[in-house]
Design goal:
11 helices; mainly alpha
C-alpha cells in the first residue's frame, strides 16, 4: 500500500485525462454507425472478439486491483482514487468497445442499408457476448469472495485470454477491409486517435506501480494490429477512393 501514498497530482491528472480520452476515442465510430445506419465494412467477428477481449481485460483488472481497494482504508481519498485509475481506464475502454456492438444492433435494425443476414449475425453475437459476460462474472466473483488463492491464477487466465482475443480480433477485420477495398462503416478517425494512443496507454500501464504483464499485454497487441488495419484503410482511401 505504501507505493500508492503521496501520489503525484500531475500523474493523477494525466491518467484521468487518458481515461476520458480512451472513451472519447470511440465516439467517431459510434457516430459513424449512427450516420450510415449500416454495419457494412465491420466484421461481426471483429465485434465479437473485441467485446469479449474488453470484458476479459476488465475482469482481469478488477481481480488484480482488489488488494488496492483493500488498501484504501489506509490511504487518503486522493491516493485511493489514483490507485484505481488503471481500472477506470480499462472500464472506459471495455464499455466504449461494447457500445459499438450495441449501437450496430440498435441503429441498423430495420435500416434499408443493412443486409438482413448481417443483422442476424449481429444479434447472435450480441447474445453470445451477453452470455459470456454473465458466465465470466460468476467465475470472477467466486474466487474474490470464497477462494482468494485462485484470484491471481484466474486473473492471469483472463488477461491471457484477453491477449489472445485482442491478437486475433483484427484478422477478420483486416480480411473484411481487404475484401471490401474500403473502410465502410469502420471509422478511420477512431483509429487515427487510438493507434498512437494505444501505444501510449500500454506504456503508462507498464510503468504503473505493481504492473502485471497480463494487464498491459492485450493493449500492446491490439495497438500493433490496429496499426496494420489503419495502414490498410489509408492505402485503400488513397488508391481506391469512393466517389
Amino acid at each position: 500500500c505504501l507505493i500508492y501514498r503521496d501520489s503525484s497530482l500531475l500523474s493523477f491528472t494525466i491518467s484521468s485525462l487518458l481515461a476520458v480520452g480512451i472513451f472519447l476515442s470511440y465516439v467517431p465510430q459510434h457516430v459513424r454507425i449512427y450516420q450510415r445506419q449500416t454495419s457494412e465494412g465491420i466484421s461481426p467477428f471483429f465485434l465479437l472478439l473485441g467485446t469479449m477481449s474488453g470484458f476479459s481485460a476488465l475482469l482481469n483488472v478488477v481481480m488484480l486491483t482488489q488488494m488496492l481497494r483493500d488498501c484504501c482504508s489506509s490511504l487518503s481519498w486522493f491516493d485511493c482514487a489514483n490507485s484505481q485509475l488503471g481500472l477506470i481506464q480499462v472500464a472506459a475502454q471495455a464499455t466504449a468497445a461494447a457500445l459499438i456492438l450495441v449501437l450496430c444492433v440498435h441503429f441498423t435494425r430495420g435500416s434499408p442499408f443493412q443486409m438482413l443476414a448481417e443483422y442476424a449475425k449481429l444479434v447472435s453475437i450480441y447474445r453470445v457476448c451477453s452470455a459470456y459476460l454473465l458466465v465470466s462474472a460468476i467465475f470472477v466473483i467466486y474466487p474474490l469472495v470464497w477462494a482468494p488463492g485462485l484470484v491471481t491464477p484466474v486473473a492471469n487466465f483472463q488477461g491471457l485470454f484477453a491477449t489472445v482475443l485482442a491478437s486475433i480480433q483484427y484478422f477478420p477485420q483486416i480480411y473484411t477491409t481487404w475484401r471490401l477495398k474500403h473502410a465502410g462503416s469502420l471509422s478511420m478517425n477512431m483509429m487515427l486517435i487510438q493507434t498512437p494512443g494505444g501505444f501510449l496507454w500500454a506504456t503508462t500501464m507498464i510503468l504503473r506501480p505493481g504492473s502485471v504483464w497480463s494487464t498491459w499485454l492485450p493493449y500492446l497487441a491490439a495497438a500493433s494490429l490496429q496499426a496494420v488495419l489503419l495502414s490498410l484503410c489509408v492505402w485503400f482511401s488513397i488508391t481506391k477512393p469512393i466517389e
